[in-house]
Queue: 4 jobs
Job 1
Amino acid sequence: MKKFIITAGLAGTLLFASQADAATYTVKSGDVLWKIAYDNNTSASQIIEWNGLTSAMIYPGQVLKVSQDLTNSKYTVKAGDTIYIISQKYNTTITAILAINAQITNPNNLYIGQVINVPSTSQTVPVQETTGQDIINSGKKYIGAGYLYAASTTRTDVFDCSSFIKRVYEEHGIYLPRTSQEQANAGTSVPFSQARVGDIVSYDTNFDGTIDHAGLFVDPNTILHSSSSKGVDYSNTTYYWKDRMVKVTRIIK
């Protein structure tokens, strides 16, 4: 089972059960069902079933259910909690929790005492194991994408080093900070000799004491990253990158 490394303790309070309506989406001009399904982490066939549709035909202004009606419980956020940690506690997914908490606009910004919905134990779903190789596999499909400093995290045609890493981890439900410095401190530091596939390798390219680049560990001589010279691609770390390596950070335990 994937685990997000975090040092603070986990504690929480289950309050009471309540009936929550399914999440909905209002169709806009130009929308197609498969794209709506993709954006809401479900399938077109499920949306058709939940809405009693007879085909994939939709029209502007139509309100569609994009999740199941679930009986939910209330959870009070405590020190150290993240959406990921809470999802593991209730054997569910980050996507499932966000789908029933429209008020959470930024999954990274929970606060102590916040009350959120969580699926009841009867509605929980199996959590798929994520490995470092899964992270690399997600990253490989972007090989050839260009480089753009401070690229928007919503873009997949161009990346900078940290938006690339943030993107591939989020595809597996793990939300990382935006910058390479922050990402270097998001998990647990491990010696380079113990680095594993998918770990984050951080660099100081200017030798000024500041982390300014990051890549994904593939093997002791290779990283997958987005560089200013090549965009997303593999790089040999034997020469240029070796002397500039600062630390290795493990996100998936």
Job 2
Amino acid sequence: MYKSFLSPGLKPQAPLFIKAAELSGHPIPKADVALSKIRKLYAIEEEIKGLTAPEKKVRRQEDSKPLLDDLRQWLQKNVTRLIPDSLTHKAMSHALKQWSKLVVYCEDGHLNTSNAAAENAIRPFTVGRRNWLFADTPKGTTGSATYYKPLSKKPVNALTR
């Protein structure tokens, strides 16, 4: 997912845009500021992706943790300035409520910042679940289970390697 934010070999340019907008006197949407801060975290992950787990942990503690602390302070300061029913307020509130779960990756170099691999691994079975509604006989459900059981283990095994 972070590759959509970064061009290969380039540093994130969003902070420059935000600084220019601040100097021009135009208001900057809070979502843009938050995404700029998050992009910096993904840039660090891009830099450390070839390192060992202990090396990743050290780099995350040195580089990502201060950025996360800054992001949390910014969220706490700005969430109260939004309309409570707005989507941005809901997103910022959710991030603050789930903060301990969001930052746990800094404590273990084996963890990823994204669960996209797990979601992609189970997607075929969540789609299949809808189709199972039409298995209207015991033989049909047994056939579906026989077919999907070996397939369901492959993605899970791939994630645990």
Job 3
Amino acid sequence: MKNIRTPKLPVASLIACAGVACALMATPAQALAVDCGAKNVIPDSEVHNHMNYNGWTRADDGEMYWYDYGIRAEYKEVYDPETNAWYWFDADGTLAFDKDVLIPGLLKWVRYDERGHMIYGEDTRVSPIDGEEHTWYFDTFTGEMLKGFQNIPDGEGGTKTVYFEPTVGWMLFGTQVIDGVQFEFDPVTGALQLGMVGDATAEEARILSIAQSKLGCPYKHAGLGPNEFSCDGFTYWVYNEAGYQLWESMADTSYVAQSKWLREHGKLKYSTDELKPGDILFFGPSWDNLRHAGIYLGVNEETGVQEMIHSAGHIVNGVKIGVTIGPLDYDFIGGGSPIH
């Protein structure tokens, strides 16, 4: 048998590829054949003797293929019940291994290990892009490579908020400037360091730390957390988590109820110049017609722009944006907090 394929691509191709499989892994050690672990494998040359064959074959050169009703799988994802794993077959029908693949139609990046099995959870290895060891995380249900702010298991029964580089997907550590905002991540675990919020007071920093711990969580209409949020569901969850109740009844925790509580307690401010970190922000044409809420972060030192953290709910490139950081909306109407 000849030596196994060793997938190699130039760095530029690794980053720029779209709609095609591309390797982001370290090149595997040479071996005689790919071994996916399947036991029911027939010689590829004998497929014609098995009408409508479903399953694995191995060619004389050691390559493994999959057939559906006698037709070789090409540029296709396949699930094999015997090995309980998902696989990807390239355009020539060969089994992909040690590769990142952009699944057509679904537009999600997944990774296959040295056996060709789809990877789930944390994966640490050396990247040929920079020759350094990095850590990625793949959704434990879909296998999709996570990017941006994400909440993942911390290995101790809890979760941690981390950030994955949006292009290559590896976890970032230390001091990082993301969308103009500086964040600190643990140099070993990658966990977002809470309470490090510029010149904010201790209580302001606590509120903002709670809010930042949910960066990357998805938007959900009427979502009250802890991991899916509407805009006012997010402001409700943050302050409820901090031990504050800005509403008269749990039956109504909306931005209408929150703004009413702040107004009745003399906590509302009506100018952006008066805002302080942690203030709940309200947006809309009038107090009777509010449309959005967020939490004030402060002024971005690099851009000079006032920013908030919020469950955005708007759509970018077909994706509804969840908890993120951005500038204040144009129709700010007021804001406040029980801590000020």
Job 4
Amino acid sequence: MKAASGKAMWITWHEMKKAITSPVIVVLLVLFIVFNGFQIFSQSFLRDELKIVNDITSSYGNAITEAGLLEMQGDIDGDAEQLGAQQDAEMYLEEMTYEKYEQVNPAGQKAIDRLSLNYTYYALGMDLEARYKAIDMEELRKDLFDAVPMEGRLAEFMGGQFTKWENRYKEIVETEEYKEWFFAGHYRMHSELFRSLVKNIAVQSILLVVLITALIANYEVEQRTQFTIYATKKGRTLIWHKLKACLNVSLLAFVLLAGCSLGLFFIVYDYSSVWSTAVSSGLNWEYKLPYITWWPLMVWQYLILVLLVELFAVLLVAILAFTVSLYIRNSYFTWVICLSMLIALFLLPSFLNAFPMLQFIASLNLSLLLMNPHMYFTGGTTFTMIQYFELWTILLWLIISLISSGWSIRRFYKRDVA
């Protein structure tokens, strides 16, 4: 039994080596990591300003409280007084002109910049409650039904989803979950991490995974050794080792790409003080609305869940690409066809505006899931922001991928290997 298991593992490893040792795969992986690193460092001029949040949380705690803001105000006014202010910090900063700033020595300019940053966060904290409670959920409900003319069961379902999301908003307000320090919204750090970097990782992983899968699945055909290999004792059962190898190398590629890219990101940007901050923090307000998540999620929890969702989606794409490979028998044609299908899936819902039910069903697709990591587990006014959207999409495509791969492998056992 152990000998058979060891031999099976050796065969799978041999299949994996075909992709791992491929110069194309290795070069692409390195280029993607370098590209992500370049993008991260190109925005790193903001990192010194972002560090102010660490000082704020260490001095006043992670929660935004009246007592903390009052203490913060006293400290800010004290800092302004040390800079020679005859009034409070607000008036001092309002009267600070460019000419006055230029007359101050470099050390003084740094102190003024720090005072300005502290005051910005103080002002955001003071205004947060009024701003957050001013969100008009009824207006958002109206926007939902104005955007898509729904009726029947779909209208009832989406109305129920919105009611749950509204109740979640009320829960956040009651528990004051939104009153936690985070990077100011105008820095858009949530988007920088998830909408930019993690989405890049997802797209790059797909490019790699489809090529890896096509290369392993079609290796014998492209080397013209299929008549020799598939005529052996192991014969066509080799296809199962190929599928395992595709999934293993896809997992490895994703882990390497995500690990290196995220490692560089967190070397540049210090998240040490905000890991336990709720993603639904009112300061994490980048666009029209803050991120109102379906469940209380801290930043570290959100990151892990996002990576797990992306990983499952990438592995599902690997299975689907394996299915296509058994029909196409050419690595690069398979790569082009799979990417074209994913692009078509991404665009499909936009062509179904006149058919809301079909648009809703079409929205449960892997491409939309992969391209929107910044909106995972977050409610809103679109079909992709329903509760459990990520779970339903993965389950649906798991069923599709298992059925299609099972059918194609069964066909592979019966067809001519030529």
